[in-house]
Amino acid sequence: MSGIPESTAPATTASEGLNNRHMRRILASSFLGSAVEYYDFLLYATAAAVVFNHVFFTGLGPGLAAFASFGTLAAGYVARPLGGVLFGHFGDRLGRKKVLVVSMLTMGLATTLIGLLPPTSQLGAAAPVLLVTLRIVQGLAVGGEWGGAMTIALEHAPGGRRGFAASFANMGAPAGALLATVAVGLCTLLPEDDFLRWGWRIPFLFSMVLVLIGLFIRLKVTESPLFTRFEAEAKERRLPIVEVLTGHGRQVVVGLLAGISMFTLAGMATVWAVNVAVANGADKTGVLNSKAAAALVMLVTTIVSARVCDRLGRKPVMVTGVLGAMAFAYPLLLLVESGSVLGFTVAVMGAQALQGIVFGPYAAFLAELFPTRIRFTGASLCFQGASTLGAGFTPAIAAGLVVAGGGGMALLGAVWVGVLAVCLVAILAAKEGRSRDLG
């Protein structure tokens, strides 16, 4: 694409492959750190669908309580691009590793405090206000995590394996979602009163244990060799975000739209659909178990598509996933509306499989849009912005479109397919980056 400087030097690598000890440690750090961050972030999403409307938004009626709960969910997504810019600024100036440690500690603290937050019945109006505040802190932290985890893995990897290496940051998302859903699902086995009073808090408090494990591995990772090469230049620049927006605007738009395609799948299938299925009579535990299984399916398809994109290119794989999402949009809505666990299972597994197809190449696709000096900031802005627009607001927008459509799914389906079509055009408009040297 225009505006992307091409490097004439060979790509810097830490090894000739991904199997040496140091590279395995880097990939493990990228995966585990991202998994812990997304465990925390998506744990909130699950709780927003099945818990918070009963604990923090009581007295509003089922519809308004669900809307308010999803609204706090969206607050975290709004903060993600801000976190990407904030952490990206320091990651592009001071190094990838340092900001990754700070982002993980920030996320763990916010999640633990949510687990300790008294309900509205005890704390009054301060409870939902504090909940939103902590959710915003979560959003800032996860906004910085993905960009750092992705760039440090990609910039250590050999050129022919960049797509697979970068995807380890993406693999952490379904792994974290799986762990979060299983944790909440196990707690739903408690009597309903116990679950709503204290059981839902256990997964949030468990976050700090996961953070300590992630930090143990992350502290042993070395700085990106590509960043080290440009470190002196990086410290001279004041605002990487200014260069991203003024010199790479087209890349930002393409990166945003490409990501929205898969994040609408996440918002629809793993948040909105959970609420709708349970409201229509589906067993809560069965729905959460299906969601956990679907996260595993997404993890597998993410791995496969990441490997394939190193051979065929980023665009062909992502286009396949978006076309599949367009074809599956209406069936998914009808399956969720059925109110059966089986219908929800088919819907969420199909959606997560398609999301994984796009998700696998997406990290490398974004990284190859930007040069090293602004890669952390540029890629983070696109990824987190797409997450905010595609997943953060999707549940609330979907609920509004169903109401506007008289309770039916036709209007929602039409809007969703239209959004996916725009995303498809953006991906097709991008240049393939698989063979581009990083500079």
What labels would you give this structure?
439 residues, mainly alpha
Description:
It comes from Prauserella flavalba. This is MFS transporter. It is found in: Cell membrane. It holds the Pfam family MFS_1. The structure is a single chain. With about 450 residues, the chain is mainly alpha-helical. Helices cover about 80% and strands about 0% of the residues. The protein has one domain (about 20-430): MFS general substrate transporter like domains (Growth Hormone, Chain: A), CATH 1.20.1250.20. The protein contains 20 helices and no strands. Helix 1 (about 20-50) packs antiparallel against helix 10 (about 205-220), helix 4 (about 95-115) packs antiparallel against helix 10 and helix 6 (about 125-155) crosses helix 18 (about 375-390). The longest helix is centred in the N-terminal third of the chain and has 33 residues, at about 60-95. It is globular.
Question: What would a concise description of this structure say?
Answer:
By secondary structure, the chain is mainly alpha-helical. It contains 20 helices and no strands.
